[in-house]
Amino acid sequence: MITNLNTQEAENYIKDAEKLKKSWFYRNSKLLKAAELYKKAGLIYKLSKKWMEAGDAYFRAATCYNKQNPIEAITLYIDSSNCYRDYSSSDAIYALNNAVELCKENGRFRKAAKHQIAIGEIYESNLNDIHSAIAAYETAIELLNNEMDETKQLECYEKIAIFYSELEQYEKTIDIFFKISKISEKLNKSWYSTNNYILNAGLCQLYQNLRDNVLPNKLMNILNICIRFNNDFKDSDEYRFLKNLIFSVEKKDPEYFVQILQDFDKRSPFDTWRLKLLLQIKQFINMKILC
Predict the structure, then answer these.
(1) How many CA atoms lie within 13 A of 275 on its CB side?
(2) What is the pTM of this model?
(3) What DSSP state is assigned to residue 270?
């Protein structure tokens, strides 16, 4: 167990490091020694579960390494952010931003994108700031262009599409799902189903049309849009599911709607986002607001 004496030792390390930083003699070597002292203090604070103090110590160590050992500095900025994360989201993001900039300066774009995604996760989970989360993921996609990493870009696009749906900007959601269906088709990976992304776009279009009071007999046009985008879609289970779903909406038949969902869910279980969207669609049948 870490004692108060150990914490006092950490404070002494911090004081000694500050003295070294103020000395202009042998400036570079003094900075490296100061960084080591900050790291020692950070470890003690971390083991003592003094997370803000640990974050501060690791951050100071990182700034000492910034120019002389940027790779070590990046690691310490991440350590700092991890300590801050549950206690000060703004400090956690600031530390990660420093790591991103150093990664970019040193051509480590994949790492920069990884840390940019972590920033997006903090905005999403800790701050519920969807707009900033979208911006973070968009920046990650730009960074991944340097690495031609379309697999990771696809995952980022999918997050952005879901964010836009939460903001009820369904046109943007639809455009992105169609876009990532093309990326998925190009990647040709079994775990990225092109038809699933097209289905998501179709479901969003259905929900948008219902919100806009589009006449029920016009809803089947959604299928034509999906087929025009990818002709192979018409031979898929996802197409048949969407077609039957639209038919149940046209007929205002909630029982048939539920049966369709249950049958499809047995073959391809719904994730939370899709199930929520389907239940929102079902509300239009229950409320009988269709013409």
Answers:
(1) 8
(2) 0.89
(3) P
Q: Count Cβ atoms below 10 Å from residue 18 Cβ, excluding itself.
A: 13
Domain definitions of the chain by residue range: 193-291
DSSP 57-117: HHHHHHHHHTTT-HHHHHHHHHHHHHHHTTT-HHHHHHHHHHHHHHHHHTT-HHHHHHHHH
pLDDT tens track of the chain, all 291 residues? Answer: 445 557 899 999 999 999 988 876 657 788 999 999 999 999 999 999 999 999 999 999 999 999 889 999 999 999 999 999 999 999 999 999 999 999 999 999 999 999 999 999 999 999 999 999 999 999 999 999 988 888 899 999 999 999 999 999 999 999 999 999 999 888 876 666 899 999 999 999 999 999 998 877 789 999 999 999 899 999 999 999 999 999 999 998 999 999 999 999 999 999 999 999 999 999 988 775 444
Taking the CB of residue 206, how many other CB atoms lie within 10 A of it?
22
Closest CA to 84 of 110, 49, 52: 52
Using the structure block, give the residue that is written with the tokens 């006449």.
215
Quickly tell me which residue has 């009820």 as its tokens. 168
Tokens of 222: 């959604």
Residues with Cβ within 8 Å of residue 246, at least 6 apart in sequence: 206, 219, 220, 222, 223
